[in-house]
Amino acid sequence: MKGMQNTSNVYRLPSFRELSGKVILAGAGPGDPELLTMKAFRYLQQADVVITDRLVSDTILEEYTKKDALIIPVGKQSGKDASTPQPVINDLLLEYALQGKLVLRLKGGDVSIFSNILDELKTLSENHIPYEIIPGITAASGAAAYAGIPLTARGYSTAVRFLTCYRDTLLDAAYWLDLARTDDTLVFYMSSAPLDQLVEKLISNGIADDKWLAVVEQATTPLQHIYNYPIHEHLAGHQGKTYASPTLIIIGKVASLYGDFQWMANSRSKEDYFTPVETTPVKKEKIS
Q1: Is 162 helix (H, G, I), strand (E, B) or coil?
Q2: Which of 89, 107, 228, 274 is deepest in the core (most CB within 10 A)?
């Protein structure tokens, strides 16, 4: 990919303040590059520096940025030691903004849903760096649309909850009971690894037989694949399965509608759409 550089090393900030630039925090959508907003596209064509998460389509970075843009991958991936620490990302935002650059901080999905935008906003605010926030299509919206599953529907669900359960301690016993008994649609981000435990919790707390499960791998990409069945069938038929990253989980009555309104065929490939986090450091360098 053009101009890619690694951020394995912590960069030293300038010792003096130059004319301040600006930072744009923008969502790139869930995968399909055509789901990028027009405003984010416009800034991509203007940005001097693009600091990008892993879950951003290569097409966006290769075709939508200006030719001399510096592209810096700062990906995070569960279980990968090469994931970029948040303090390094914060320092990069400051380093280039203090050089007077227009910096685009590009995040997968939407910038305000399960991202570290708060850390970055605090860094920019404390250092008096001007910024803008541009929303993007979050994974829940993209995955549901490309699966033909309405997140709310009359007679099925009137509310949606966005959650994560990558650690058992994130949700207490009372909340598990509430989740099992509600008719709200439940959308779990970053929770495919503990999916068996998640389903066990819901079943043990009495989730109804009419609730279905949709597991959406690599949503909105050509490699999208969906597993769909009643939630009470999971432990008997699907326990122990591993899923491609990223994976989104939709639970509720609406998930049963997938079979009726699926419009995109499942991919048979098990390849990764998004480039895994680099495990070998690459020297930081400027685009020629």
Answers
A1: strand
A2: 107
210 catalytic residue (yes or no): no
Nearest to residue 258, comparing CAs of 152, 149, 145?
149
Q: Which helix (H) or strand (E) holds 117?
A: helix 117-126
Dump pLDDT digits (tens) for 42-88.
999 999 999 999 999 999 999 999 999 999 999 876 655 568 999 99
Per-chain mean pLDDT for the chain: 89
Q: Which of 22, 39, 76, 253 is catalytic?
A: 76
**What confidence category does residue 284 fall into, taking pLDDT thresholds of 50, 70 and 90?**
very low
The tokens describing 225, both together, are 């694949």
User: 70: part of which helix (H) or strand (E)?
Assistant: strand 70-73
> Using CA atoms, how far apart are residues 100 and 89, in angstroms rounded to an integer?
17
Query: Residue 60 and residue 274: Cα distance in Å, rounded?
Result: 12
Average pLDDT on 10-39 reads 79
pLDDT digits 0-9 by tens, 151-207: 999 999 999 999 998 776 778 999 999 999 999 999 999 999 999 999 999 999 999
Q: Tokens 């919790």, residue?
A: 201
Q: Which domains does the chain have, with CATH numbers?
A: 22-137 (3.40.1010.10), 140-261 (3.30.950.10)
Segment holding 259, helix H or strand E? helix 258-261
Residue 285, φ and ψ in degrees, nearest 5: -150, 155
Active site residue 39: no
Could you say which of 53, 107, 184, 211 is catalytic? Answer: 53
